[in-house]
Structure to design on (277 residues):
């Protein structure tokens, strides 16, 4: 944790935003079917369901589009930002892509670890199975349909744990490897570039009684707006990168008190959770 800024209003009317949150309904007037992150009016990710007892989820969809980086701020983001409250220009630039709302700026230092679903370190086939068991319909763990980065975790209390993820809008296989190598070289010389993300905090807890460890999972998920090459370079080189997170307070499955605790939780030492606490 570098610093948390003050919550601020950002964004444009939802109809003008390139990125927005949406709800898919089963039929007119029916119950909600999916909670979505939309990019250019196409569903990009399915997110954790509203109930709060379903598993944490960020599942890339077939209609997911491209990146949302901005050339106008690339030079500023080549180096390390120091204070989110001093970066009004950067936040306003990205705010023009986002729906109107209250956002909590968090400036984080992360050391990303690239995760391939189903392989070592995968949250969905590891910690989530311990808390929820496997998907009862498929007989398998949840599957995010995208590689992603794990960056941090720590205890919230005896009955809850915070897990942090960085999710690329496009998989690393679509990155320009020459650009990744350029960032690797810069990082090995001591550079610490900055990425930007819109983030959600979803607090989920199993109510099925099937879990080995029924602790609540606080999922802090950062969806990359800018920095796809930087994150892959940092994971490749084992180097830190800074992340300016714009936490969407009104779109998270967390109460105001939970969101207010996040800066202090993110400043705690990293710790893992043993099954059963």
């Amino acid at each position: 944790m570098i610093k948390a800024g003050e919550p601020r209003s950002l964004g444009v009317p939802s109809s003008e935003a390139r990125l927005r949150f949406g709800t898919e309904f089963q039929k007119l007037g029916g119950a909600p079917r999916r909670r979505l992150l939309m990019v250019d009016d196409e569903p990009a990710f399915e997110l954790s369901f509203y109930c709060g007892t379903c598993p944490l989820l960020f599942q890339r969809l077939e209609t997911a589009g491209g990146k949302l980086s901005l050339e106008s701020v690339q030079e500023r983001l080549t180096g390390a930002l120091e204070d989110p409250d001093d970066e009004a220009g950067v936040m306003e630039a990205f705010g023009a892509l986002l729906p109107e709302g209250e956002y909590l700026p968090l400036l984080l230092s992360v050391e990303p670890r690239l995760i391939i679903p189903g392989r070592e370190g995968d949250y969905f086939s590891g910690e989530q199975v311990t808390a929820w068991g496997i998907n009862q319909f498929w007989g398998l763990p949840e599957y995010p349909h995208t590689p992603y980065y794990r960056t941090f975790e720590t205890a919230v209390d005896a009955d809850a744990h915070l897990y942090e993820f960085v999710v690329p809008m496009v998989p690393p296989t679509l990155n320009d490897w020459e650009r990744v190598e350029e960032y690797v070289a810069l990082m090995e010389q001591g550079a610490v570039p900055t990425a930007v993300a819109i983030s959600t905090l979803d607090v989920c807890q199993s109510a099925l009684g099937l879990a080995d460890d029924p602790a609540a999972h606080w999922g802090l998920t950062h969806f990359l707006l800018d920095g796809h090459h930087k994150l892959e370079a940092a994971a490749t080189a084992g180097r830190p990168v800074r992340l300016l997170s714009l936490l969407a307070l009104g779109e998270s499955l967390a109460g105001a008190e939970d969101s207010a605790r996040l800066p202090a939780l993110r400043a705690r030492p990293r710790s893992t959770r043993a099954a059963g606490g």
